[in-house]
Amino acid sequence: MKRVAVLGSTGSIGTSTLSIVESFPDRFQIVALAAGRNLELLRSQVARHKPLLVSVARADDAKTLAREFGHTRFVDGLDGLEEVACFEAAHMIVSALVGSIGLAPTVAAIRAGKDIALANKETLVVAGGLVMAEVEQAGIKLLPVDSEHAALHQVLGTAPIDSVTRLILTASGGPFRTWQPSRIAEANVADALAHPTWEMGPKITIDSATMMNKGLEIIEAHHLFTVPENLIEVVVHPESLIHSIVEFVDGALIAQMAPNDMRFPILHALSWPDRLPSRMPGLDLLAAPPMTFESPDEERFPSLRLAREALRAGGEMPAVLNAANEVAVASFLDGISSLPSIAATVEATLERWSEHNSPLASIEQALTADREARDVASEELRKYLDTEVGSESRC
């Protein structure tokens, strides 16, 4: 029986993880959960799984829930997150928080000797080299949950990395794949959240719309598989049935295919190195649509270029890229700014930071860069909004 703790239990990955656990009650047990403020959903999760430990965002909510569920201990805040991440009874931590907030508890879990099922790509974007060094030192397993990286993990298997010519990440292209730039500039939140093939949380869905998600995945793949940035390519595959491809030195291309359902990569991470018989319907090739591929348009979607530039620059730059993106995406989701403001804010923040970028020496430095870059990004976003308002007034 593998005992599992989930960081981000009320998000899309968290709820899918609990669904997998429920399908294999003889193999997995939930012993701890960490959530935010969605108490209605969390109550149902606690009632169903009876975890020993639960973390929530606010102390008042922890006290309220403690009165309702006598079998569970409730904690709160960032300390509560780390307590769940290090919970002694857990064998594996599913790191499914959204954003750089996932870095500190994930590192704490690694240092506590827990295996990690990693859905929080920001952990590797912000401090990938340091995190992978922590993984090696702790001697734990870190298994990717992102569908693309789970695909690469399965395809690579035990193949030596020097037998690999390219890693090919597939991208759906998002809702704006066929839109002209002028129309993209007018897109609203509802447009951006209307993803054609995946059901995801709002932040990652916006990242998919700008293709920043694929940029972050390039950085993640670089750290997970120790492959140079120039050997990681992105191919747009609108049907989202092939999740990634590896090209080997002998010219063979091997792909991993599955329905576009995150429960498949979650099951792979939870059960690895075993393969469990899935209760989910597999991919019916005869019913599948024709599969198509195209190059990404980096002029319409500059986030891909920005992510590559940040990775090449190294040091604190990937953390800055991620922080600026989180600030700009939050502003867009709040209806304050336009979709183009996201890439513009990220680029301006990276340009300013490049003047004093430093090599990354510690997790604490990465977290400091994340916090300070958010202030810079907020300033740059305000400048961009002022320019937009000024342009409108002149018209």
From TrEMBL:
What InterPro entries does its record include? DXP_reductoisomerase (IPR003821), DXP_reductoisomerase_C (IPR013644), DXP_reductoisomerase_N (IPR013512), DXPR_C (IPR026877), DXPR_C_sf (IPR036169), NAD(P)-bd_dom_sf (IPR036291)
Q: Name one GO biological process term.
A: isopentenyl diphosphate biosynthetic process, methylerythritol 4-phosphate pathway involved in terpenoid biosynthetic process
Domain 1-deoxy-D-xylulose 5-phosphate reductoisomerase N-terminal: from-to ranges? 4-128
Q: Could you tell me which Pfam families the record lists for this protein? A: DXP_redisom_C (PF08436), DXP_reductoisom (PF02670), DXPR_C (PF13288)
State where 1-deoxy-D-xylulose 5-phosphate binds.
121, 147-148, 172, 195, 208, 213-214, 217
Q: Where does NADPH bind?
A: 10-13, 36-38, 120, 122, 201
Q: Can you say what this protein is called?
A: 1-deoxy-D-xylulose 5-phosphate reductoisomerase
